[in-house]
Amino acid sequence: MKTVAIVAEKGGVGKTSLSIHLGVAAAIKGKETVLVDLDPQASASKWGDSREAESPVVISCQASRLEKVLETARDGGAQLVVIDTAPHSESSALAAIRAADLILIPCQPSILDLRAIANTIDLVKLAKKTATVVLNCVPTRGSLGDEAADAIKEYNIPIAPVRICERTAFVRSLAGGLAAQEYEPKGKAADEIWEFYKWLCKQVKL
To answer: What's the CA gap between 95 and 73, in Å, rounded?
Structure first.
């Protein structure tokens, strides 16, 4: 079983959307997938409640229960677990970071987000792990994405080669309990998720 943690101390960077889309990608590819929602707001869990498909399985739990939930998932034959963490919660972030084979830090290309990733990077270092920054909600036009990538280099941390852009399909799909690759299978949002998922599989040898 492989475990991927989506972590960011700042809220509103797209953790839940990225978690859901990666979980659905794995499920579509036939992987037994569990999406663990550590956020008290339970956005991923509410999305799961509105979903007709049975996979991925969505489980809401507190950080203190994560180890037990992961053990149960492993015993149940899960191949991939995606952990959606809570913002402004070091305990949630640290629990996920320590359990993860791959740690992803979503970051939007704004100065506030770029500054905020420093806190998350510190938590990763505290756990003696490594992480990769994911540029998320990148405008489809202009140079903001490139400028953000240059700024992130100052942190001496890897950046995922696939950027997730700001696209309507990401928003509309979640409202219906879907992901972009289900809502608009041939759209650009779906293409980006599939490219990212391929990269993710290589990282964790899935």
So the answer is: 16
